[in-house]
Specification:
This protein has about 300 residues and is α+β, with helices and mostly antiparallel strands. The protein has helices at about 15, 20-25, 40-50, 110-120, 195-215, 230-235; strands at about 30-35, 60, 85-90, 130, 135-140, 140-150, 160-170, 220-225, 225-230, 240-250, 250-260, 265-270, 275-280, 285-290. The strands form 3 sheets. A 7-stranded mixed β-sheet has the order 1-2-3-7-6-5-4. A 5-stranded antiparallel β-sheet has the order 13-12-11-10-14, with no helix packed on it. It has a two-stranded antiparallel sheet with strand order 8-9.
Length: about 300
């Protein structure tokens, strides 16, 4: 393993500041900090205080976060220089500058998950899959999580989205937050160069995001010269076809067959009485692959 791939190697700030890379991706600003509480929290504060200083696709990345949080306010922490910890300011608008409808925003974290999956497949050579709503798995273990947060409406403008991503890169088994997590190194990826992985992710995200914006946020439109966002996400999502338990707000839960995504990226779950439920938020636990009930009624749910 060369120096760039070694655990504890800082991000290459010169490489990330390269004007060819920034202009190719359309990133107007990319800041690297050694340590912070949370890149998402920092950007939420920044877009409130100085909205004009943080245009669409502005990026903040940190070598270490002390107060990062995931979905449902879960705290997590990784050793310094071991992960990709990056947040992006999104102000979704089409080529004419018309803001996207806010109901399309639920797709933004799925675009990030898709871009991260492509990075892991193409740059690291790791077979990644998506777990609804916004995790990236490798061989059933979580390697990355994504958190989208709505920013404030300032001066009557459309509220921005702060999209945070955490990817485990050089963490060893003893450093993982939970036993069901993994990292690029543990999965024996062909590279653990965090700079290379970050640039790949941002490049892929920018292409998918801009294409989605130019389609006015239509997930059924062809995307970046290929299938629609809806088709791409469904094809990569291991949740579909599984029997799942969906934890819903208010301590409700549904057990059923995860069948498909609707036009807003919500998960549709069919229960044992063939009723279809729309799951828009909450935790989803994979139970086992779905088997439809057989004629004797012994299949399906136990």
């Amino acid at each position: 393993m060369d120096d760039a791939h070694a655990p504890g190697t800082p991000l290459d700030r010169g490489d990330l500041a390269d004007q060819n890379f920034l202009s190719a991706t359309g990133i107007p600003l990319l800041e690297v900090v050694d340590s912070t509480g949370s890149t998402n929290a920092d950007l939420l504060r920044s877009v409130t205080v100085e909205p004009a200083a943080w245009p669409d696709l502005s990026v903040l990345t940190a070598e270490y976060q002390s107060a990062a949080r995931g979905r449902l306010d879960r705290h997590w922490e990784a050793p310094p220089l071991s992960s990709i910890l990056v947040s992006v300011v999104l102000r979704p608008a089409n080529a004419e500058g018309r803001p996207l409808p806010t109901q399309t925003y639920s797709w933004l974290s799925l675009i990030a998950a898709l871009a991260l999956r492509e990075t892991l497949l193409e740059t690291a050579g790791i077979p990644a899959e998506l777990k609804w709503p916004n995790d990236v798995l490798v061989r059933g273990k979580k390697i990355a999580g994504i958190l989208a947060q709505l920013g404030p409406m300032v001066d009557g403008s459309v509220p921005p989205v702060i999209l945070g991503t955490g990817l485990n890169v050089t963490l060893r088994a003893a450093e993982l937050p939970v036993p069901t997590a993994t990292s690029v190194v543990l999965e024996e990826g062909r590279t653990a160069d965090r700079t290379l992985l970050l640039k790949s992710y941002l490049s892929k995200f920018a292409v998918l995001y801009r294409s989605f914006c130019n389609a006015d946020g239509d997930p059924a439109a062809g995307l970046a010269g290929g299938p629609s966002l809806h088709k791409r996400v469904e094809a990569a999502m291991v949740t579909l076809g599984m029997q799942v338990r969906a934890q819903l707000p208010g301590d409700h839960e549904i057990i059923g067959h995860a069948s498909r995504l609707d036009e807003y990226g919500s998960l549709l779950v069919v229960d044992r009485d063939s009723r279809e439920h729309v799951v828009t938020a909450g935790d989803v636990v994979h139970l086992r692959p779905w088997t439809s009930p057989d004629v004797s009624g012994q299949g399906g749910y136990a």
